[in-house]
């Protein structure tokens, strides 16, 4: 079980995914987008900022309300809340949802429909349908971290593509931490196809995230510990960007 604080850290994979989205923003603008394991929600917040018609559902572990609270705080900091009288609190814009989601869980629970912290996949998909929408994109940055979760993630993607919409694609930035870890056999099992997107294809700039090239970021960030973590870049070289869809 990963420590809940892992969901409050901007992992290097999130930068790769966000860069791809920005360079190809017309593909995501005005679409309906689900982010799995959103954590700090960098890719999702970026999508939500593209236009008021871009509908974004940010999800993370339903058993860790502190992560969901952190997502809400992030939405506030990124001015994605509806506020009045210049107050710092407010409700989410109608194009942004924050939900708890357990990977690999497909049955309806006993929770109330409007309990955003405990919804599961079937409830979420029903809510999306009732909102007159279908998913266009599913996002995940570094969701393939713990091998025991790999099949639950792939099964969740396969379920969405089989029973909600076959047109959506799963875009995930994946950091290779061991050559012995692979998801290919799971893709075959769940009848999914995959292609690797070269980081060169969208001119990803590795130097942008190195300490020697981040003086502006350092000067504009007040918390020293936060600065130190945000500029780690050594793991960027082991990140792959994958696009997965129904075979």
The strand count comes to 9
Order of helices and strands: HEHEHEEEHEHEHEHHE
The largest β sheet comes out as: 7 strands, mixed
The mean pLDDT is 84
CATH architecture: 3-Layer(aba) Sandwich
CATH structural fold name? Rossmann fold
Low-confidence stretches: 111-117, 224-231
Distance between the termini: 31 Å
Instruction: Evaluate the radius of gyration.
Output: 18 Å
Q: Helix tally?
A: 8
CATH class: Alpha Beta
Question: What sort of overall outline do the alpha carbons produce when their principal axes are compared?
Answer: globular
**What's the domain count?**
1
**Helix share of residues?**
25-40%
What does this structure look like?
It is a single chain. The protein has 247 residues and is of the alpha/beta class. The chain has one domain (4-246): Vaccinia Virus protein VP39 (Rossmann fold, 3-Layer(aba) Sandwich). The chain is 30% helix and 19% strand. It is built from eight helices and nine strands. The chain has helices at residues 12-23, 42-48, 65-77, 121-130, 150-163, 184-189, 215-220, 224-230, and strands spanning 32-36, 55-60, 81-82, 91-92, 96-100, 137-141, 169-175, 192-197, 239-246. A seven-stranded mixed β-sheet has the order 5-2-1-6-7-9-8. Strands 3-4 form a two-stranded antiparallel ribbon. The longest helix has 14 residues, at 150-163. It is globular and about 45 Å long. The two termini are 31 Å apart. 36% of the residues are buried. This is 6929_t:CDS:1. InterPro entries: Methyltransf_16, SAM-dependent_MTases_sf. Belongs to the methyltransferase superfamily. METTL23 family. One of its GO terms (molecular function) is methyltransferase activity. Keywords: Methyltransferase, S-adenosyl-L-methionine, Transferase.
């Amino acid at each position: 079980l990963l420590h809940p604080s892992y969901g409050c850290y901007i992992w290097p994979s999130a930068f790769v995914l966000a860069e791809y989205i920005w360079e190809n923003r017309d593909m995501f603008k005005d679409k309906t987008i689900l982010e799995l394991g959103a954590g700090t929600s960098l890719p999702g917040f970026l999508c939500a900022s593209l236009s008021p018609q871009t509908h974004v559902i940010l999800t993370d572990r339903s058993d860790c309300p502190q992560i969901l609270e952190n997502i809400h705080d992030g939405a506030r900091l990124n001015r994605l809340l509806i506020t009045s009288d210049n107050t710092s609190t407010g409700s989410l814009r109608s194009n942004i949802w924050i939900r708890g989601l357990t990977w690999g869980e497909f049955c309806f629970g006993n929770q109330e429909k409007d309990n955003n912290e405990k919804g599961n996949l079937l409830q979420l998909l029903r809510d999306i349908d009732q909102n007159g929408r279908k998913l266009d994109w599913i996002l995940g940055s570094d969701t393939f971290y713990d091998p025991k979760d790999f099949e639950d993630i792939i099964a969740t993607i396969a379920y969405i593509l089989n029973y909600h919409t076959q047109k959506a694609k799963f875009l995930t930035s994946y950091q290779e931490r061991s050559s012995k870890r692979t998801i290919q056999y799971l893709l075959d099992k769940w009848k999914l196809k995959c292609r690797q997107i070269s980081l060169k294809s969208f001119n990803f700039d590795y130097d942008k995230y190195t300490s020697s090239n981040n003086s502006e970021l350092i000067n504009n960030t007040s918390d020293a510990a936060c600065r130190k973590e945000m500029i780690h870049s050594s793991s960027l070289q082991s990140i792959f960007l994958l696009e997965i869809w129904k075979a």
